[in-house]
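chain below, 112 aa
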Amino acid sequence: VLKARVRNIWKTRQRLQEALSKMDLTEQIDYKSKLDEEFMQRLHDIVEAQLSNSDFSVNDLCQEMAMGRSTLFSKLKSITGHSPNDIIRMIRLNKAKELLASHAFTVSEVAA
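prediction:
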């Protein structure tokens, strides 16, 4: 029974790694201006600094960016076509993908 559970966990981990390796979450964005590029870099840095904070939300991002929620939403939609939640999720998934690909962490460690 224990061997079967370990085998299932191992297979699940392999499937997850394969699925993540096939995902392309790094869209190439053609920025209309240097300001847009700097804005996105700042946003990315803020979200990456908060990766360990599972409670980090769009409201927290708005505070960090010193913007209102609707202004942030409109700006991100115009630059990327995605919502703030989508952007936060993509940054988190990209980091998880990197960590899993390095084989230095288990799925549980990355999820924590």
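The chain has a mean pLDDT of 86. The two ends are 27 Å apart (CA to CA).
thats it, cya
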